[in-house]
């Protein structure tokens, strides 16, 4: 939303005639807050891009201003689909944005401003779009005290202390940013939920946010603590089969809907990492979810998370969610969605897609991604995540659909990376992940490259040399992080608790699956997690065609190798290089990749503002040092097990 002033031919094109935005009145929706938001945004954006004042016309003013180029908002055109679709067309007077509903007009306005911000000419713009998924949501892991679980961008942006009396302009800018990329749902609180958020005083605060965001097409949701009837309801149980419990939730839902008629629903983390759930009473996840779904009724949705694992099953954490949920297919109420993380463990730099995708045809399944970089270097390491999400979305599940297709009835959720930092996301480049998440939830077929280019042009500079270099740097960045942290399909080697920095040597934590050694299984002879039939057989959770892609270490994508196979250190790739040699080469490639990013960035000094350039350069310096730390510490630890010398041609530790 920077709307940086245009220059050269693009500016000349936009300023050929005076510009005006027109809302034709007399239509079905004369004065609607969403249409007003669209018109305001167009006025603001076009004025900034063109450097001229852009006027707003209503009704028939336009006929009298024949000299103006007019951008008209037609927001009740029944030929355009509902749900946010829009069409932008050239007209004799300028350009028309057509939609069947106000929200389509708002999305169309943002789309037009994006195209202009990228440097396209007004007279070349024409497009028709519709969101691919009904739900495009942010999940905030924000606590009522202002702290943010896994947040690296300052404290929470939600100021519960001042709400509902005061609403900061920040909340409007947040809604604009979200609407500009198509996000239409926000869960405001942590899935490790405080029951306090369901108390009347918080409902009043939430109502203020809901009212402020409604014009931007954003519905609010709450993470609901399953034990709330006990915690704040005065009952001694939260058993979903107890009629008093069901009645409590029904009353709570009625209370929320009285304040917020378009309340989206509840997100629930149950019987996971110590959270309460239906399992506490011997009930299934479906029993718990359906009870809440009944309380909401057709008014809203229960989004139930599939992120569960147990300390009592030491065999393979990667199989547990599948074992628990796959048998429940078809048992969830119509207004329940199952929210499944992209991979079967936990937001690692690389994981294969979660085997539940495609495997529950009679359940609406939604993809959960993590925008905040818990396992990817927090906010100082540069990692553009669109390539990672594309890898999952494009994966054929083997059940006849790609992941992107399998989630079509539901959509995508992203764990937000937004906080009170001046740059919103903890680093300038982390804004790109918020941006790319929203754009992919709108259209999962967009390429990571296009998203990187769009974002770079709008955020930094439209100059082609800059956009080409910086988008290429972004596209390689996640692979670089995977290389220096967890190459060849290794996972979960981060330090305990905070997950920052290497600690593959940790093996003494009370729960087996919290230990890095549980995941790498390295010893004197070899390394990797055997998930073949000879090992945990997690491969069996995938459809046969998908499993076949990873079954043979000699003929598979090596980026997943040690996720599925335990191999001797001297195992050789088909090209003759040993596993040990290749592993060390990957670490080296990761470190070299960061040095390369530093060079690319340094080469563009002076092309953008000095302050932001310096911020990024500083962070890359941190990343360079810490990539080396990851590489040296990891290799030293593997050597302490395998006693092998550094392979020829690889670098000594710094
Ligand atoms: O990624 C892990 C995090 C926890 C988080 C949990 C979850 C909100 O380490 O902090 O808790 O997953 O997704 O529930």
Give the helix/strand layout.
Elements: H1 8-14, E1 19-23, H2 33-50, E2 55-58, H3 61-64, E3 69-74, E4 86-91, E5 94-98, H4 102-117, E6 127-129, E7 135-139, H5 169-180, E8 185-187, H6 200-213, E9 219-223, H7 228-231, H8 243-259, E10 265-268, H9 285-296, E11 301-305, H10 320-325, E12 336-341, E13 364-370, H11 386-393, H12 403-406, E14 411-415, H13 431-442, H14 448-459, H15 464-485, H16 516-520, E15 526-527, H17 544-551, H18 561-564, E16 567-568, H19 579-602, H20 610-642
Parallel strand pairs: 1-2, 1-3, 3-5, 7-8, 7-14, 8-9, 9-10, 10-11, 11-12, 12-13, 13-14
Antiparallel strand pairs: 4-5, 4-6, 15-16
Helix pairs in contact: 2-4, 8-9, 13-14, 14-15, 15-19, 19-20
This protein binds 4-O-methyl-beta-D-glucopyranuronic acid.
4-O-methyl-beta-D-glucopyranuronic acid (GCW) is lined by residues 141, 149-150, 191-192, 269, 273, 307, 346-347, 374.
Task: Supply database-style keywords.
654 residues; alpha/beta; Chitobiase, domain 2; TIM Barrel; Alpha-d-glucuronidase, C-terminal Domain; 3 domains; 8-stranded parallel beta barrel; 6-stranded mixed beta sheet; 20 helices; 37% helix; globular; binds 4-O-methyl-beta-D-glucopyranuronic acid
